[in-house]
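Hi support team,

I'm opening this ticket because the web form for multi-chain structure prediction keeps timing out on my end. I have pasted the exact lines I submitted so you can reproduce it. The total is 468 residues across two entries, so I didn't expect it to be a heavy job. Is there a limit I'm missing, or should I split the entries? Thanks in advance, R.K.
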Amino acid sequence: MPRVLHDLACIDDRRPSPYCWRSKYALAHKGLEFEARPTGFGDIPRLHGGGHKTVPILDDDGRVVPDSWAIADYLDHTYPDRPPLFAGPNERALCRFTEAWLFGALAPLLVPMLALDIHDHARPEDRAYYRESREQRLGRSLEAAAAGREERLEAVRAALNPLRLTLTVQGQRFISGEHPGYADYIAAGFLMWAASVTTLPLLERDDPVVAWFERVRDLHGGLGRSAPMYAIAV
Amino acid sequence: MPRVLHDLACIDDRRPSPYCWRSKYALAHKGLEFEARPTGFGDIPRLHGGGHKTVPILDDDGRVVPDSWAIADYLDHTYPDRPPLFAGPNERALCRFTEAWLFGALAPLLVPMLALDIHDHARPEDRAYYRESREQRLGRSLEAAAAGREERLEAVRAALNPLRLTLTVQGQRFISGEHPGYADYIAAGFLMWAASVTTLPLLERDDPVVAWFERVRDLHGGLGRSAPMYAIAV
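Hello R.K., no limit was hit. The queue was backed up. Here is the completed structure from your submission:
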């Protein structure tokens, strides 16, 4: 039985889920082959007996593991002879802090800006549900949330300052240091979510964040180029 | 010869340097006794043959190590039988990212808000230099930089969201996980800098960040209570 990662898919075979991206990178980091099987929102309740609401779900030769953090822990536990995702509990905790930075500082800006683009890239049968649930959460229409979003680009770019300083003043090639690690997969996966759907380029071409993003996309045989994305920079 | 950390001191024996705080915590984390010797700005050029512009400077029985990162690396290298500050290069790199988050997201807000308070707590002989150099950097008077700073509290609190999410949604006791680590010392040391001088309480009393800050202050025999600070919360 092959190793399968159920991977959220939109139209045009775009793969927007930041959680799926980090799990694909986790598998590649450990040198484990897998199929990233396209999964629509509506497919999820039918997977592995139902009861799951989100992907990624890993099916590792019959062992079913949902949730990106559980998948990472499962991989380190099950394949201890492969390169570790976490050298110890502190690295894991600091990777969670990296995730909290993205969801605390970037997501509040980007989610309203991109919600309409996400809708427009969802499979047709998913759009009504997506619009209704997100408009309720945002408290306004997707169109209203996106209006004037160009004026919010400066704030998005400023919110990336911590990553930018890590790459410039601190001179690191990756968030994890000289070599890429799970923190990079979390952060790049988050930008891959944006790049999968954004019809507005978010960054400036000469931004060191862009060079880092392209470095991560190149890793593991160009994994980050295995699905279509828009240009992240103008 | 005793182990001495040259530690920036202001009036009232306040110890504002975030870099000194993390080095004091690093020494305590490794269980190494030391004297945190009070040092004025003007004392620094006279230390250890001159040539140093900043503290901390560690004098470990005659081995002189300047710079907080060099001190951390020196301690892990010299005392490998003691608890490590960095379990490996990835943890060190992620601690640098934590620092970049503070300096990229918090410092731009807090430095103008606190510059006048810092001035007022500097030793009298240091104030003229401090005012001139900081007003040049800020492009305005210290008083102008601080004006209306109450209105900027909301942005300061929002900028702490990544730490707050780590403690709440992610359920970690410390940034480094179940146990405190160097990332906590960096972040708490940064807030100790603020608390050493701020005459305006910055956070709300029930903020989980405050509970974490007080937890870190309690560590290592109450190290974070060994110098006077203002209340960080109203």
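A quick check on our side: DSSP finds nine helices and four strands in chain B. Let us know if the file doesn't open in your viewer.
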